[in-house]
Amino acid sequence: MYLRLNVEKVLFEKYDINTSKYDMLSNIIFESFKGNNPINIKHCIFFTSRKTLLNEFNHFEGNLNIFQPAIDISDTALEKGKNQLWNI
Fold first, then answer.
1. Is residue 17 within 8 Å of residue 32, measured between CB atoms?
2. What's the rounded Cα separation, in Å, for the pair 40 and 21?
């Protein structure tokens, strides 16, 4: 999380990105390195690939965390699962 936020901060400051218009890291990267010159393309590919690795690590770490609550599961889905488990 720290790496992601730090990258966002540096790109915002260095390229004067409009934070109300570009609020997702991928959009920030594309806006920071727009254009068809080879250096911008190289930087865009570099940062996008690193963003993908960060996302994968965050998902993997979340899957290992057995104490993380399942906040995205609705009450009806939990009730249905409980009924199936207990054959109610």
1. yes
2. 20
